[in-house]
Design brief:
401 residues; alpha+beta; FAD/NAD(P)-binding domain; Polyamine Oxidase, Chain A, domain 2
Length: 401
């Protein structure tokens, strides 16, 4: 986006490009090393920009999301509130009573809830919270969700409407308004294809971490050798207190305030699996250490080697040893056979009450030196690919003015 007006150099910390959406081939099978990434957006401007760079019909497959939740050995539709009729009768009765009681209360806005836990209980009721929302969200975020401000997941939460929920269960209408109810996926090489295509013609210096930023004659000096007018930082904001070497006490203090923000890592296993038509399977129950299975082999046939079996990625929150994960795979459906393992120490950001205010201050003070933050771990926002593109568009627009 910036190359039209700037001489751009990209410093890539690792030997290969792609960040959290990078993929690699394992004996012919495509391994999404951190989850399984697909593309869509509700922002038409983002869609227009994206499709300027790709031939949608030639290079992509459009798929309908088919997600399920595994509860008590049964596959329940997703989102669960639209498929309550698939649950046992006694649980349905308790959930419906909860929802009716919520309807009788004064209507609340999103901002009326002090935290994520109270939002879930206040909109879905205690029974559905204990059955699914509480255990799943506690597992995937690996944190106390009563301490999580609701703003953290702004735009990521299905905004519930009890009347629509009840109607969906009566007329059995499937959810179609979620961002990824349908999605686009590259025919070959998954999200790595997106990265590789967008990187063509760019000056990228791999294995080149940013270790210092100073000032020299009014310019930024990176790694004591590279002078620049502007810096867009897409790395981990927590590292900036060590990287920034500018004599500015308020800036130093602001960077120290964000130096210990909490995050979660994920352990991922590429597996062969029996055939299924699923795209995602969510695992809320405590008896499973894993929290979801992403059936990446169903996204494109080219993701699978010629063994006659499909592939999937099983994801765990936190770090788990291979022996533990192999035992876990035996408990999951699909006769899973592990092919490769990956641990990413930083996958999910976690916000607390003061996080956004502290990041905003850091952004403001860094801006005084033409240093800009962009991306999930730089801005400390739970941004997926489309939101990162949107953020890049907004930043580049300001820089190109």
């Amino acid at each position: 986006m910036l190359a039209k007006a700037y001489d751009v150099t990209i410093l890539e910390r690792t030997p290969t490009i792609g960040g959290l959406i990078k993929c690699e081939r394992i004996d012919g099978n495509l391994f999404h090393r951190v989850g399984g990434h697909v593309f869509n957006s509700k922002n038409q401007i983002v869609l227009d920009w994206f499709w300027q760079h790709f031939d949608r019909d030639r290079d992509f497959i459009k798929a309908k999301r088919n997600a399920k939740i595994l509860l008590d050995g049964k596959f329940i539709g997703y989102p669960i509130e639209n498929f309550l009729y698939q649950l046992p009768a006694q649980e349905i009765k308790m959930i419906v009573l909860d929802l009716i009681n919520i309807l009788k209360q004064e209507e609340k806005q999103v901002g009326d809830y002090p935290n994520f836990e109270s939002f879930l209980k206040g909109n879905f009721g205690e029974t559905l919270y204990q059955l699914y929302f509480g255990p799943y969200n506690s597992k995937i975020w690996n944190t106390d969700i009563s301490q999580v401000p609701l703003e953290w997941l702004d735009g990521k939460l299905p905004m519930p409407n009890i009347t629509e929920t009840l109607l969906s269960n009566i007329i059995k209408q499937e959810e179609s308004t979620m961002v990824h109810a349908s999605f686009y996926y590259p025919k070959k090489n998954g999200s790595q294809f997106i990265v590789d295509t967008l990187s063509k013609g760019l000056n990228i210096a791999t294995s080149n971490p940013l270790v210092s930023v100073g000032l020299d004659n009014g310019k930024l000096l990176l790694n004591k050798t590279l002078a620049t007018d502007q810096l867009v930082y897409c790395g981990d904001v927590r590292k900036l207190c060590e990287i920034i070497q500018i004599a500015d006490e308020p800036l130093k203090e602001a960077l120290l305030q964000v130096a210990n923000l909490p995050s979660n890592g994920t352990s991922n296993v590429l597996c062969e699996t029996d055939g299924t038509d699923l795209s995602w399977l969510y695992l809320p129950e405590k008896r499973f250490k894993a929290h979801r299975i992403i059936y990446t082999g169903n996204f494109s046939d080219t993701n699978n080697a010629a063994t006659g079996r499909k592939t999937c990625v099983v994801e765990f929150s936190g770090k788990h040893d291979q022996a533990t994960m192999k035992e876990e795979l035996k408990q999951l459906p699909g006769n899973l056979s592990p092919l490769a393992f990956n641990y990413e120490p930083n996958s999910y950001i976690i916000q607390h009450k003061d996080t956004r205010a502290n990041i905003a201050l850091a952004k403001q003070l860094l801006g005084n030196y033409n240093i800009h933050l962009l991306g999930r771990f730089a801005e400390w926002e739970y941004h997926n690919m489309d939101k990162c593109i949107e953020g890049a568009m907004e930043l580049s627009s300001r820089m190109l003015q």
